[in-house]
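Hi there, hope your week has been kind to you so far. Please have a think about how the structure follows from the sequence. I've dropped the whole record in just underneath, so have a look:

_____
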Amino acid sequence: MNKILLRKGRERSVLKGHPWVFSGAIASGVEVCDSKGEKIALGWYSPASQIRVRIVPDAPIADLIAEAVGRRAAFYADDAVTAIRLVNAENDLIPGLIADCYAGHVVCQFTSAGADARKEEIADALMKFAPFCQSVSERCDVDSRAKEGLATEPAFRVLRGAEPPELVEIAENGVKFLVDVRRGHKTGFYLDQRDARAAVGRLANGADVLNCFCYSGGFGLFARACGAESVTQVDISGDALALAKKNEALQHYCGTKMEYVEADVFQFLRKCRDAGRKFDFIVLDPPKFAATKGQLMKAARGYKDINLLAMKLLKPYGTLASFSCSGAMDAAFFDTVLAEAAEDAHRKFQVVARTRAGADHPVLLSFPEGAYLKGVVLRSIS
């Protein structure tokens, strides 16, 4: 087995349980050894990546997958939820492996060289240990694969089992969705926002709701299910809005007025401002503005701008649910950005809820980078 010798002092994060070893920490070169040559961990080596080594347990990959799936047994006991994350990469001790299950169809992303080299073994283990598993497929169209020097074609292929339907129907706490596992965002759906969608729905009764960056309509449909007076779904993608409309058609009729707008969200908010249009409840769930620390300040300006616009469009005592999936921006900094936007909007807000990814997206205590998603629900009091 090859050995990775760390520079003096760089072993501390590994000994504390952090799963990454960056190229600058390596003195020579997969056993990971301290500066004295003593073995401290095992890892998967990625020669093309800035994250040169990812720490893994000394255990068969099938056992790690069985354990990850087993930790989610409570989800399978609840028929109200038919789509969950089975493996959450480093947080489940399998670096670079995302495995999401949509009504029995598992879709994987292999985003590290180590996981990609073991995809056949991983597919076999998922077929064996994932309850009700009908197929295992992979999505290769994720940007991080290119950074690892991994192929990005074909974009989708089935590894095991039956070909998934063109659109897979799932259920989430009384709301139904169609998931495009071949071309949809991430592996097809934003499973990490399940708890946040429920939180928004509980607060949306009787409200005029604006759902920005709506994708397939998740937040808006939960608001509708919980008695919103009206819901305006906005996204720049016509394909996303078409899927959102199909998802609306799956639900029971409830009388909520639904509107779909294909537009750039920043421009739409400015048009609403200029027209004097106001809302009781606004949801901002934008795509990642900062992929790296170097992009953080530019991203902060974008987050401030869009939240400032939304705050000015709220009616008195209105509610804003604002989210960031930029891992480079921690929760404290996100709060600072929101506070500065509120000050410039000349509005005062109370924090009435905070959200994060659900229990099927656990975060390893020694890996704070895993806590990429953060949400804050604010109520205006002036």
